[in-house]
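From: lab user (bench 3)
To: helpdesk
Subject: output format question, protein + beta-D-glucopyranose

Hello, I'm new to running complex predictions and I'm not sure whether the block I got back is the full result or only part of it. Here's what I submitted:
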Amino acid sequence: MENKNLRVTQLSCEYTSNPLGIDILKPLFSWSIHHSERNQKQSGYQIVVASSLENAKKTFGDMWDSREVNTDQTTVKYQGKLLESKKTYYWKVRVWDKDRNISPYSEISSFEMGLLNPEDWQGFWVGKPGGGSPLFRKEFKIDKEIKRSRVYVSGLGYYELRLNGEKVGDRVLDPGWTDYDEVVLYSTYDVTSLLRKGSNAVGVMLGNGRFCPPDEVVNKNPYKLKKYQSYPIFILEIYIEFEDDSFVNIVSDSNWKTKEGPIIFNDIYDGEIYDARLEEEGWDEAFFDDSGWEFAQEIGSPQGKLKSQATFPCIKVDKILLPKELTSPGPGVYIYDFGQNFSGWARLKVSGPGSTQVKLRFSELLNEDGSLNTNPNQGAGATDIYILKGQGEENYEPRFTYHGFRYVEVRGFPGIPSLETLEGCFVHSEVRSTGSFFTSCSLVNKIHENIRWGQLSNLMSIPTDCPQRDERMGWMGDAQLVSEETIYNFQMIGFFKKWLTDIKKSQKEDGSVPDLVPPYWDFYPADPAWGTACVSIPWDLYLYYGDREILEENYSMMRRWVEFLHSQSKDGILELGKYGDWCPPWHIISVETPISLVSTWFYYRDTLLFSQIAKILGKIEDQDRFLKRAEEIKISFNKKFLNDKNFYGWTEDWYRTFLPSTASKEDKEITLKRLHRYLRSQTANILALYSELVPVDKRKTVWRELIDDIVVVHGNHLNTGIIGTKYILDVLAENGEADLAFKLVTQATYPSWGYMMKEGATTLWERWESLAEEGMNSQNHIMLGTVDAWFYKYLVGIQVDPHFPGWRKIIIKPYPVKDLYFASASLETFRGLISSAWRKDVNSFFLQVSIPANSQAEVQFPKMGWKNIVVEEGGENIWQKGTLVSQKEGIDYAKENEDRIIIQIGSGDYQFKLKEE
Ligand code: BGC
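Helpdesk reply: Thanks, we reran it on our side. This is the complete output you should expect:
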């Protein structure tokens, strides 16, 4: 029976809605189901894929009709006829619920194939040798009615594509960064509405990006920057299909004309210089006289293979920010404060005499005197210069650079600028926001918001460390630490899947990977805490998106990495490493936590996780082999790092190396005591506790040592670098110290997130210290943003059940800390919306939960220190005197342990209330 309460929504193909130009031969379809009844599940589906909209409407699956498949699975791989280049396909799906009611068919979605074979590319790579930012143009005539038209284009480092005087699409800094020796991404655009019968013109503008940075930039960079070629190039194909089913291809070749454009300098770090006097009016339109232009040259293609980026979130201008304040610290010098640190650039509005040069400099900080402090930029010039043509109001924004900044300094402005002179453009990879989080504590909300700004500023087609200085690299340590935070906040699967390919391509024969990917700096082999990304990111994607194929696709990479770690180890200990518990308070390299301890811990964790992955994929031999190895590492870890005082960290042996051999016995003792006071490692104990490496009989001493160090030695402060910081709050919460964890976060004194906020941070810093002088002091790093995952997972308590990945089963386990009276979060997942919100007053604890159809949840209520607890749902008692007293729809079973009452629920909305009888 068809049931109108049941609907299929959120259709996506390769996690993207209606993608254009995919190059995956067996794409993955997914959907979510919406049911107005509680406790509902899918029991079957039918998917229909058609070669035309008409067929799809008629439910004629001429490409594929799955028929009814009985399963609760809401993802399925295409299993129909061969998909062809450039073709559009249409699909819809219907489902059966657990009572065998059937839904109406969903709305029709589409997907279109890109260029599947190298031969499909009819164009040539062209360029203008010697050119910094050349323009290319070509006119063509159309004499028939157009049915549809597409452009397939890639330009290295960056391109801007124009058709008949207009920019095509809204992507900027395109295509995405890759190692161009391995992969070159291309974009597909629907340009049907931009073409017309008669004369048309296509124009391409090129920038350097990472493909051909200027030599001066390469030479001043602290490490050898990879440079692929000395000038930019592009390839393009305009495919036009006519109403009579004939078609034509307009392609890039040596018939195109080229000339240097108005961008006379461009570099991602140093900025852009735009000379508007060199603009050629109408160069991207038909009937332009290009007789003075040269012919473009056909150039050999780059080494990397062309690959579609249709399912990869491209970079766009996300938001326009208006400046909050305008000051003038000196004659002719103006400072704009946007009130927020972010990645992107400024739009300038100016009128004045031709040849006037307006200079914009970007920075995150000001000096005491109100002038610009460019220290955090290090070697990045971060300067855009606009040279006026002198004709009325002129508007400028750069194309081939970006900056990380809060302040912009303007010099050389003709006249006096106003707040309207500049707008800020927030630019980053366009990942969809999927998470929201809000509590009764404005400081916590502020930390969360800062993290979102910082995170987005660091998604620039790869996960970067920072947007302002001359790095902006895909440091794997930073990315792996915050991958859960990103996944809670944004739809990351397309972004990370692409980056995993980058990582795979960067892996060497011996299994090593670099610290940063793509390897624009040659940093091999990675510190284990950085390289772990090649195991932990596939794992996180599997956990949160339930995509097993990601584990399969990356299995051999993971295995080779784990084997590499093993090859570098000796007696179960891994000395290999460079950074360890990076950037703890006061230091860059930790003095408290040995690098080998952190490396060995990751060696253990990756090996164990890999054995678990082998198990999931049914690879029993690997499962056993790596499990056994992990057990051995565990023994070595304890042997080496569990000291004679029964906690982890430096051992006395090591302390002794500080002592002169001539020291007296008393001196030795005093020094050892002192060293012990200063060289206690929170991180060492946290890591051991987190991974349950601690022998049962030593748990107490290790825990006591950790708490004593936090509470007594550091006066309720953490003393961890980026590694320990990711786990400290989890370990505290899991062991009954959620209030202490909360204090570490919100503490207004150094070091803590609260302290950063107090000091005016609008993103997160790289270091715990407030630093404005030269050195490593990015104001927009994301690696300490791990706390945000803790907000979602612990404060609100939305966790994924690892046995039912992809939110098939959800665990709701809130930690209502003393200083909060409510906390809430919601997540838009591929299965639908998950939300949870708690509130408490003196006698009651309220919890509102929404679970999407086809998922279930285990709600773990905190007992709040109460004795005889009653749980109500929707005003009706469901739990009393230690047992379930009602059989309400959706409430499956309940049990309790020392701290929690645990109730299993089906999908739907629930209003719980907990009180003492
Ligand atoms: C980067 C980091 C990175 C680190 C490696 C720094 O310069 O900005 O975030 O992980 O180097 O140690």
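A quick orientation on your result: The mean pLDDT is 96. Let us know if anything else is unclear.
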